């Protein structure tokens, strides 16, 4: 009897260990054109946030993360429909994107700057958006928060014009060619794309001198956001959310995220 009981205990522990060892594969949808943070290269997700999350995936018990790069508008649509579990990298949109909840701890802060044709900035224009009335402003498609509410109001009133293109590259080329006046862009994204355009020969250095940095117009934290439209389909959401926050907190305290970012910006 004792031997039979011991065999049962060993079997139970073996099965329990096997169950605990099984990891849930979680697919995170990411913006495919937001370098250096998230972007797609040769069909693979790359960038600062991808590297951060890959390290977390290695350390987090019970889960492995895979990344699905796609156009930002599609990413948001899949989250809104409840088809996608989580996505990166939204700003906080609790006030207008009711389909997202919860958010992770902040991953990093991103600064949005204006890049303008030189002649636009010959006159000092420190105040956004009031100093830019009457101008055509570029933006990436789907970046609904860029510019702020006052800018969006001016656009709706016809006091400013908004032109949206899919990628940072397209917007920079449009600006260099004089087909827009300014472009709202993430600061690091602009630095990286400008460098790549010159190094690839798509834009020569002289042409790039036709545009320059203007003021910082916003600074916002970015997060991993989770769908609130899944109706319980992702029943592990609470546990995953807590575990990813624990790992993000450790990386922030150790300054590991900043060190990863520095590698991309060299």
Could you characterize what this model shows?
The N terminus is likely disordered. The chain is globular. Helix content is 39%, strand content 27%. It has 2 domains: 126 residues, Periplasmic binding protein-like II (D-Maltodextrin-Binding Protein, domain 2); 111 residues, Periplasmic binding protein-like II (D-Maltodextrin-Binding Protein, domain 2, 3-Layer(aba) Sandwich). The protein is α/β, with parallel strands linked by helices and 266 residues long.
Draw up the topology in text.
Layout: H1 2-21, E1 24-31, E2 33-34, E3 38-41, E4 44-46, H2 48-59, E5 63-70, H3 72-81, E6 86-88, E7 100-103, E8 108-117, E9 136-140, H4 148-156, E10 161-165, H5 168-176, E11 182-186, H6 187-200, H7 205-208, E12 211-222, E13 225-227, H8 237-253, H9 256-264
Radius of gyration: 23 Å
Question: CATH topology of the largest domain, what is it called?
Answer: D-Maltodextrin-Binding Protein, domain 2
Largest sheet: 5 strands, mixed
Approximate helicity band: 25-40%
Name of the CATH superfamily of the largest domain: Periplasmic binding protein-like II
CATH A-level architecture of the largest domain: 3-Layer(aba) Sandwich
Count of helical stretches: 9
Strand order of the largest sheet: 5-1-6-13-7
Q: How much strand content do the residues show?
A: 25-35%
Structural class: alpha/beta
Question: What count of structural domains?
Answer: 2
Separation, N- and C-terminal Cα atoms: 68 Å
The average pLDDT is 90
